[in-house]
């Protein structure tokens, strides 16, 4: 019953957050790398999308796994936030944070924003439910297509507010990973003692690469670098 | 130097408290922070007012009794020192200084700046000891301990249990304290047999006391007068996870 022991304790809850978080880090790295194929061309991008869809059941195993990870991550975050609120019922009149990073202090609300983004993103590119211009397609914004992923990307990112939303969301992903990719490894105890325990080279690189890779696509489309 | 103090006054655990303003006059830069409060208290008592209650004992940073929030920073602006080791030269003439007690559900205010840190004692009672009788002191080096281990154990054992880690943590977590106590025993040969059980029990008690969870803000390490590293939190978590996987324990159970 060690899972129950984990579930009952704050350290265990954090371990669950860390494991699910790390799984999602691996996913976003893969997703980002897949996206970059848009710079190679339509054939490459659409071929890759067709290949993913051809995996059939496996695709659904991965999708359900990701969904479970996200749900567990959120559930633990909610519980820990409630515990935190109860741990200091009377707050200080004055408190001066000393070393905590902006990233660490935006994990909760930044996480909420990322959730909103994920829902929007799925309705946007996976189902095509929210696809601005869908009602009145024109030359710049053709209709959503389930097979022409390249075309979807091109038409989606000519709408300023959509591009802005993606860019802002990716800034929060940068922050979330800058703290999360580092702290989850520490939470799981997978670190060796260090003279500067707040230093995080690997997490910094991961966060920056993911941020750059994801942001490059909407920005490049918007400014006509790829068309 | 003259300063304006805003001090938390609360006459009893259930009373409603508030920040009250006082003038600290003729403060010498060589005074300690607590001496400045002593002088203020002398004056208050001469005027027939109730002195400000605050905890202190050794006044040399080794007992862990003292500790208040000074301008929103646990133990004040000096790094690696307790409140009693802080001197007034750390402040400027004309400064306003806000003084508040540690804030945590597990540390209820007793009076003014004094809080009850009994929760820490109960965490220690849950497993912060070695059960076997170790007998009289052995000859030095009769039990060889690697240098790195003894150094790390000493670093963890430097914890004086003042509670600044909890006070500074935005989550109100006692992870640094518990980790230090789990680790200084877990790093030494005498602490090995109970290493994982100890981590499980002390973490369970920490949760029961309604401290928050650790999200690695790092504020605790900065506030700690002994500069204990958050590395120990990783170590405690590792011991806890190994313990949870290998020796499941009933909640709050004392049987092994
Ligand atoms: S009074 Fe003993 S540590 Fe400050």
- Corresponding CATH architecture of the largest domain in chain B: Orthogonal Bundle
Output the structural class of chain B.
alpha+beta
Indicate the CATH topology of the largest domain in chain B. Fumarate Reductase Iron-sulfur Protein, Chain B, domain 2
User: How would you characterize the largest beta sheet of chain B?
Assistant: 5 strands, mixed
**Percentage of residues assigned to helices of chain B:** 25-40%
Mean pLDDT of chain A: 92
Largest sheet of chain A: none
CATH architecture of chain A, please? Up-down Bundle
* Helix-strand topology string of chain A: HHHHHHHHH
Residue windows where pLDDT falls under 50 for at least 5 positions of chain B: 250-256
State the total count of DSSP E strands of chain A.
0
* N-to-C CA distance of chain B: 59 Å
The CATH homologous superfamily of the largest domain in chain B: Alpha-helical ferredoxin
In words, what does this structure look like?
- The complex is a heterodimer of chains A (227) and B (256).
- Chain A is mainly alpha-helical and 227 residues long.
- Chain A contains nine helices and no strands.
- Chain A has helices at 2-8, 10-35, 42-54, 57-87, 102-105, 107-126, 149-156, 160-187, 201-222.
- The mean pLDDT of chain A is 92.
- Chain B has two domains: 3-110, Ubiquitin-like (UB roll) (Roll), CATH 3.10.20.30; 117-252, Alpha-helical ferredoxin (Fumarate Reductase Iron-sulfur Protein, Chain B, domain 2).
- By secondary structure, chain B is α+β, with helices and mostly antiparallel strands.
- In chain B, helix 5 (175-186) crosses helix 8 (231-246).
- The N and C termini of chain B lie far apart (59 Å).
- Chain B contains eight helices and seven strands, in the order E-E-H-E-E-E-E-E-H-H-H-H-H-H-H.
- The chains are: A mainly alpha (227), B alpha+beta (256).
- Chains A and B meet through helix 1, helix 2, helix 4 and helix 8 of A and helix 6, helix 7 and helix 8 of B.
